[in-house]
Every structure is written in structure tokens, then in C-alpha cells.
């Protein structure tokens, strides 16, 4: 009895990956698209508010009809205070574009920027000593 003959498999040709394109897909701009970031940020004078990642942004009013989609999204999200980092993540925009967008909203008095609440790093020593002496008396 002869063993069955096996057929050799030929390797299938691998298709090259699709080329990267800066064109928006189906009318939607990609977050990494430089043209989209320019249209969001606009061509203003370049002045920016002094914001950092933990600055809290609070909306003062509802979005006006003339607001861009990104401005409207910021105003809807900021009903409760949100940090600039959170807004940047939710809208998938880089921090630099977020600061320009928020600066426009601050100058239009649609949002308010608040410094984050900083807790005291070290508790008061006299309070700790008073608690310690009170516990020792027990």
C-alpha cells in the first residue's frame, strides 16, 4: 500500500496595505487631519488664554445657532465643570487646538475658566497635635 500523496500549498500573495490618505473619509474629518485642525482653530491673532490640562471649563449658556459643531459640543459637555484634558479626550482634539477653541469661547463669554481646586498638601500641625493629645487622654 502506498501512502497518499500530499499536494503542496502555494503561498497566497499578500495584498499591500491601503495607502494612507489625508483626505476625509465619507465627508468626516479625521482627528489627525491638519486641515480640519486649522478650520477648528481658525486664523485668529494667535492669542490664547492661560490654560493648562487641569483648568476647569464651565458653560455659561447654551450653544448659539452660529456656533461651530466643536464649539457646540464643548458647550454641551461643559454643563458640569470639565478639565481641558477631558474635553480634549472627548472631542479627540490635541491640546493646542482645544486651547484655541476655548479661548474663542472665553472671549465670547460663553464659557468660564476656573482654576482647579487645590487641597492643602500638609494638614495643620497644631490640629494634629491636639487630636493626638486628646487620644492620649482617653
Automatic annotation (TrEMBL):
Annotated segments matching region Disordered = 1-43
Basic residues: compositionally biased ranges:
1-11
Pfam family, any one: DUF742
Name-wise, this protein is DUF742 domain-containing protein
Q: Which species does the entry assign this protein to?
A: Streptomyces rameus
Amino acid at each position: 500500500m502506498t501512502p497518499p500523496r500530499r499536494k503542496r500549498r502555494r503561498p497566497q500573495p499578500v495584498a499591500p496595505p491601503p495607502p494612507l490618505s489625508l483626505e476625509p473619509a465619507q465627508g468626516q474629518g479625521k482627528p489627525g487631519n491638519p486641515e480640519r485642525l486649522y478650520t477648528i482653530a481658525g486664523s485668529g491673532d494667535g492669542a490664547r488664554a492661560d490654560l493648562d490640562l487641569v483648568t476647569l471649563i464651565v458653560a455659561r449658556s447654551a450653544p448659539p445657532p452660529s456656533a461651530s459643531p466643536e464649539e457646540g459640543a464643548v458647550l454641551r459637555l461643559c454643563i458640569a465643570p470639565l478639565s481641558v484634558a477631558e474635553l480634549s479626550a472627548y472631542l479627540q482634539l490635541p491640546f493646542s487646538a482645544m486651547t484655541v477653541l476655548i479661548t474663542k469661547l472665553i472671549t465670547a463669554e460663553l464659557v468660564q475658566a476656573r482654576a482647579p481646586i487645590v487641597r492643602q498638601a500638609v494638614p495643620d500641625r497644631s490640629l494634629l497635635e491636639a487630636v493626638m493629645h486628646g487620644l492620649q487622654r482617653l
